[in-house]
Design the sequence.
């Protein structure tokens, strides 16, 4: 984490590049340039990075994506990773293919700051609308001096001291869930989770009659991605439960095993507790402590 903060602060000290800002439509992957001067953007970045490095990032940890609980982490992933490369590259091309003569600013739901130096480019993404539209009938006033008030009846640029994603030196750093959303990683995780759920039935790990129960479980808040990262060795073991090994598997993993009318064996998922036990086991978040008690964690256990 110290190296990450050091990199960010070095960008402030250097101040030898050009600075630009673009409003982004994250659905269409297009953007338009915002008319802020290079000096204005530099001042904003300096203020923001000093604040974030000293007050926020210094209290966080750096880890490789995916982190089970990204709230207190800055997650990193290579810019060339196949999961994000297409989406990220479409954003990085915006300065070259920026829209012009734009009249409808409401479609832009994010913005990107770009530092261009002789050696490299650095990108800062924030998934917030960069414009606030003040209508005349709102009569919003702004104080410009002690005796001068004016009505704001036009679009105003709003930048905040927060970044959801930072791209430096071929590495993408994500801060919070919005960083994942911006790069489409949550969509990928949901799709992978659904595919793994279907595999549970197709490979005989659970019975076909249990599929609807799993569907209902995964539609609950926060559960859509619950099977996005499964242990393939465990999938293989649970797909091959037989009369000869069922007791051994049931005892080792502390999972109930049922037998259907076709004399086939499956992991029991007839209620929420059994579903949660199977999901936690497959994602390496369930194990035994030193007292031989079954325990669960938010993050996967790491073998060492």
Sequence:
């Amino acid at each position: 984490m110290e190296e990450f903060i050091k990199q960010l602060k070095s960008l402030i000290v250097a101040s030898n590049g050009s600075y630009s800002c673009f409003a982004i439509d994250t659905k269409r992957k297009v953007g338009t340039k915002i008319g802020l001067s290079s000096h204005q953007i530099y001042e904003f970045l300096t203020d923001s990075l000093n604040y974030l490095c000293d007050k926020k990032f210094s209290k966080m940890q750096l880890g490789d994506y995916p982190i089970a609980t990204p709230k207190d982490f800055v997650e990193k992933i290579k810019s060339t990773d196949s999961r994000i490369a297409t989406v990220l590259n479409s954003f990085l091309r915006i300065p070259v293919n920026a829209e012009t003569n734009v009249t409808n600013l409401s479609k832009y739901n994010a913005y990107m700051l770009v530092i261009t130096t002789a050696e490299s480019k650095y990108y800062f993404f924030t998934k917030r609308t960069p414009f606030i539209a003040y209508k005349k009938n709102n009569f919003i006033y702004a104080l410009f001096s002690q005796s001068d008030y004016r009505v704001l009846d036009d679009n105003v640029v709003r930048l905040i001291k927060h970044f959801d994603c930072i791209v430096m030196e071929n590495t993408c750093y994500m801060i919070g869930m919005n960083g994942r959303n911006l790069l489409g990683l949550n969509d990928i995780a949901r799709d992978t989770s659904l595919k793994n759920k279907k595999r549970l039935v197709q490979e005989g790990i659970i019975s076909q009659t249990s599929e609807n129960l799993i569907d209902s479980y995964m539609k609950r808040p926060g559960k859509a991605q619950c099977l996005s990262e499964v242990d393939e060795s465990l999938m293989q073991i649970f797909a091959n439960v037989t009369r000869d090994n069922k007791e051994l598997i049931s005892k080792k993993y502390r999972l109930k095993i049922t037998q259907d009318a076709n004399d086939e064996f499956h992991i029991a998922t007839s209620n929420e507790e059994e579903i949660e036990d199977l999901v936690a086991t497959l994602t390496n978040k369930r194990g035994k402590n030193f007292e031989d008690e079954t325990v669960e964690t938010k993050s996967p256990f790491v073998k060492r």
User: Anything to note?
Assistant: The chain has a mean pLDDT of 89. The chain has two domains: 2-183, 191-296.
